[in-house]
Fold this sequence. Notes:
The chain has helices at residues 35-52, 73-84, 116-129, 133-148, and strands at residues 19-29, 55-61, 64-71, 89-101, 109-113. The protein is an alpha+beta fold. The longest helix is centred in the first third of the chain and has 18 residues, at 35-52. The chain is globular and about 60 Å long. The N and C termini lie far apart (63 Å). The structure holds flavin mononucleotide (FMN). Residues 41, 44-45, 48-49, 58, 65, 67, 69, 79, 82-83, 86, 88-89 line the site of flavin mononucleotide (FMN).
Amino acid sequence: MFDEFGFPADADAAYAGPVLETFVYCSRAAEGVDDAEVDRIIEFSQSRNVARDITGVLVFGSGVFFQWVEGPPAQVESLIASLHGDPRHYDIVTLDRSAEERARLYPNWEMERVGADDIRAVLQEALESAENENNIAALKRILEHLDSGPVDTLHPSATKREGAGR
Length: 166
Ligand SMILES: Cc1cc2nc3c(=O)[nH]c(=O)nc-3n(C[C@H](O)[C@H](O)[C@H](O)COP(=O)(O)O)c2cc1C
């Protein structure tokens, strides 16, 4: 258990915990998804995620969601299926999906409402590391949406298109 120096023998060995599945994506809120609906999503997710041992972060701003979830693969896969069938958001762009043995990046469930600048920074960073062409195109679309609309709009249909050109 201890090596000759008195340190735990596995102190610098690779993490040997259970496999965690990670799913990171961004999406756009559907028309009609107002603050009250976002509150409902948060409230539901909070209790459901605790029950499923899923943690992560959900960021919402200017009609765009960004979510990072991690947890047992079967639970995360079931959530991914639910998310893809949820009409409250669309243009879902998978930014990362992987399974590995590692400690959680988000040991708790967190939720943040952020402004357009913050959500833009998150998407810009995702765009810089994106490799998949479809994801790159979708991220650019969402960024254009952010650049073209009033910052407080929740509904894509309310987005003003003027000024959206290059
Ligand atoms: C942006 C967004 C994020 C969501 N995040 C979660 C979540 O973290 N956990 C969760 O259980 N449901 C979340 N939901 C709700 C799911 O899409 C789905 O409605 C819920 O899991 C119930 O699915 P079921 O009817 O297939 O069981 C989210 C929905 C949206 C639109």
